[in-house]
Fold each of these.
Amino acid sequence: MRLNMLTRLTMESAGSPAEPITGQILPPDTATSDIVYVMFHGYGNDEHEMVRIIDAVDPSSDYISVQGPIHRQYLGGHAWYDSAGWDNARIQSQCSAIGDQIVSMLDSSALKGRRKVLVGFSQGGYLSYRILADHPDTFAGAVLLAPSFHDEQPRFAEPTRRPKVFLGYGSLDRQIPEEQKTSIRTALAAFATVEERAYLGMRHDVCDAELTDVHRFLQSLPRI
């Protein structure tokens, strides 16, 4: 039996994430793999976006895919933060608070001893980075697909080992400013081992070649 869990976050009136609403976490003897993917979608999408991606990479995988706490009332879809209306300090604080909730949810006896891998696209990529930076020893690695970057003051918890990170962008991705791409490279280099790939002709998207590289990257992750 696989662990296929879709979950969402709600917002308190003050704007901080409330406790996640979760499904059942299966006991470890029902798992088919020691990896659990913890996944975060991009702006305007939902938790099903990341299921489609991970099913293309590792179709028998166990995963937890999370829905962003901000619902777009008129256009639909969800977001992790308001990139147009919030400054970087607020975005960074929001993502750190969400990360604390996620790590608390993962602190389950059913998941102990299993490798946890963050996977995020765009806004979800920045959120994955922020969670890894705050909790580097919780995760075996991270897959950051076209992540944005909003650290007001880059910071990370000192890891006992350098987690492995896959960082992928399209050569024609104009959605993420070049300065954000440079900043996340610099921030990751301080505490992680990064494998970066650029995909010729790809915009703010993913492609078959990238998913092939992600599959290979995941096979190289060490046991922790």
Amino acid sequence: MAAEGFGGRRAFSAAWWGRTGLEQYRATVRAAREFGADLLVTSVLCNGALLAAEALDIPVVVVGLSVHLWEYAAGGEGEPPLGRIRGNRTEEMRRLYERVREEAGFPAGGSRRGNSPLPGDALLLRGDPVLEFPGARLPERVWHVGPLAWEPVADTAEVEEVREFLARSGKPVVYVHLGRVFDRASR
């Protein structure tokens, strides 16, 4: 279903994600009510859907990227900051979430998930534990599940082309993104 049909124009666009939480919330509530949803599945970029699940009193599963974005439950000491430190990313996402809570008329600081609302009832990472920083322990409700069933099957010829290139270059693969990002094919 197109989000526009529920008042969510651009609400779920990755380019607008930090500014459209209220629109995400409203569109998700409308769609979920219309279709009698028992569960919501959303992205780490859709904090409005977290609030919709709370308003509708249904569980919400968050589909994450290939690695955990926010603070670890424990471990991870010595991790080099790649762009920004985890604490900074975590706090920015919490601020965005709290702003949407306020805009939607929810009480400040509350969540049925306590002080850790961002993972929803479960956060499923489309990666592998080996991609996390050594010794890091994920928060509760966060699991690595690997690529999800909806991901497209790899093109055999394309995979072989990459293997041949690697064999010629003698250089190892440093990073592989598991899945699609922002509606474009990605390795």
